[in-house]
């Protein structure tokens, strides 16, 4: 596609991935999460192209692009285009100021690895076009319209966390987000002498076609059972462990386990936020291990590769805790590792993982970073 040659951008936007320290699958149950943006990100280069409705988009990583007309936006057969088309569809509902543009997308974010490249893709486009055409859309609306885009065009019934973290994070902080009220607190985080190390299992998942929507439905089934005794329970966020015990006989073992995980995971998020504020890193690590056990045994969204990594880490005093992050079935595993042992630990786990699965894992450090930002403006 010719437009990417000699491309001179008017605007460059950086759209980060995110990690969630704890609070998995709690967002769509309107509970708590504790995410932050990371330095790995997608870069969007934009320019207006003097056309009223013709747009060109190109993903350098995929080496493929597509054209579209703003007058005839509809879902595509090509999966990745839908993240962007869905955002354009939402923007067009809010404004008539959008015009033709060209956009090049360059990503340093592993795809389908639990770092939410999908939210980075949606929010980066929305944020950039908002700026380029001065649309006057708030950051909160960018978060919400991006989530809606993923529901309607991609078909993943995701919660609000990924988009929220990608846009709203602040450097050096984690976001304690209440997904029911959208109230959020920026918590300063400093875990020295430990570091947050992500180990990518290199086993990928496809949320749209996998178990994600099934889990969401199972949670909704759980809510309906709670409501027989407790009509005030509108989502699993409102349920407690004692309500669960009182409703247990009405539930299948599977629904019981899903509910137990979500209710305890919400408690773990609040406990982790407190532990970080009190600099209780031992407790932070312990909560991560507990979360992973729930992810694996109760919510059943782990996989042998992630379980292996988490179990392996338990032999090392230099690792405080570990858990699989993201929707599940692989992706990255977060480890809290003492800075003096990072290199040694990565060498050991790489060797063990290779010999068990014949896969060369990727390791990288993550630091709490800023949400979507402009890095160049003409
Ligand atoms: P995650 O959000 O955890 O990375 P998802 O399955 O939710 O995983 O989203 C990944 C999808 O997002 C990819 O399959 C692709 O459709 C789209 N995507 C992400 N990054 C890019 C990119 N740089 N170029 C094109 N599409 C991308
Ligand atoms: Mg995603």
Automatic annotation (TrEMBL):
Q: Which domain of life is it from?
A: Bacteria
Stated EC number for the protein is: 2.7.1.6
Q: This chain belongs to which protein, by name?
A: Galactokinase
Location of the GHMP kinase N-terminal domain: 82-169
One Pfam entry name: GHMP_kinases_N
InterPro entries hit by this protein:
Galactokinase, Galactokinase_CS, GalKase_N, GHMP_kinase_C_dom, GHMP_kinase_C_sf, GHMP_kinase_N_dom, GHMP_knse_ATP-bd_CS, Mevalonate/galactokinase
Q: What is the lineage of its organism?
A: Bacteria, Pseudomonadati, Bacteroidota, Flavobacteriia, Flavobacteriales
Q: Which residues cross the membrane?
A: none
Q: Which organism is it from?
A: Arenibacter certesii
Keyword annotations for this protein?
A: ATP-binding, Carbohydrate metabolism, Cytoplasm, Galactose metabolism, Kinase, Magnesium, Metal-binding, Nucleotide-binding, Transferase
Q: Does the keyword Cytoplasm apply?
A: yes
Q: What does UniProt give as GO cellular component? A: cytosol
Q: Does the keyword Transferase apply?
A: yes
Any one biological process term the GO annotation gives: galactose metabolic process
Do you know which PANTHER family this protein is assigned to? GALACTOKINASE-RELATED, MEVALONATE KINASE/GALACTOKINASE
Q: Which residues form the GHMP kinase C-terminal domain?
A: 273-354
One GO term in the molecular function aspect is:
ATP binding
Q: Where is the Galactokinase N-terminal domain?
A: 3-44
Annotated signal sequence range = none
Similarity comment: Belongs to the GHMP kinase family. GalK subfamily.
């Amino acid at each position: 596609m010719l437009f990417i040659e000699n491309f001179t951008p008017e605007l460059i936007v950086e759209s980060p991935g995110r990690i969630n320290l704890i609070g998995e699958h709690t967002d769509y149950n309107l509970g708590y999460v504790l995410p932050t943006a990371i330095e790995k990100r997608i870069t969007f280069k934009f320019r207006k192209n003097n056309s009223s409705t013709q747009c060109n988009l190109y993903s350098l990583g995929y080496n493929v692009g597509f054209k579209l007309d703003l007058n005839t936006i509809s879902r595509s057969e090509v999966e990745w285009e839908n993240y962007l088309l869905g955002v354009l569809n939402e923007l067009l509902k809010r404004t008539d100021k959008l015009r033709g543009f060209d956009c090049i997308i360059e990503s340093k974010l592993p795809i389908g690895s639990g770092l939410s490249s999908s939210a980075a893709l949606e929010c980066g486009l929305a944020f950039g076009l908002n700026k380029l055409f001065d649309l006057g859309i708030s950051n909160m609306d960018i978060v919400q319209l991006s989530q809606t885009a993923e529901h309607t065009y991609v078909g993943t019934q995701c919660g609000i966390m990924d988009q929220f973290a990608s846009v709203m994070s602040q450097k050096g902080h984690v976001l304690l987000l209440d997904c029911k009220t959208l109230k959020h607190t920026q918590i300063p985080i400093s875990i020295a002498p430990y570091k947050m190390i992500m180990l990518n299992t290199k086993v990928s998942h496809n949320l749209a076609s996998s178990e994600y929507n099934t889990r969401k439905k199972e949670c909704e089934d759980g809510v309906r059972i709670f409501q027989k005794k407790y009509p005030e329970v509108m989502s699993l966020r409102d349920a407690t462990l004692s309500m669960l015990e009182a409703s247990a006989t009405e539930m299948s073992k599977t629904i019981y386990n899903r509910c137990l995980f979500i209710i305890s995971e919400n408690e773990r998020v609040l406990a982790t936020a407190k532990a970080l504020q009190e600099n209780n890193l031992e407790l932070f690590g312990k909560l991560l291990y507990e979360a992973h056990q729930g992810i694996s045994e109760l919510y059943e969204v782990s996989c042998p590769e992630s379980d292996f990594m988490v179990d392996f880490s338990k032999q090392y005093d230099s690792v405080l805790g570990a858990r699989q992050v993201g929707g599940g079935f692989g992706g990255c595993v977060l480890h809290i590792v003492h800075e003096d042992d990072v290199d040694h630990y990565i060498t050991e786990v790489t060797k063990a993982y290779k010999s068990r699965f014949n896969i060369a894992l990727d390791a990288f450090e993550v630091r709490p970073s800023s949400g979507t930002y402009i890095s160049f403006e003409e």
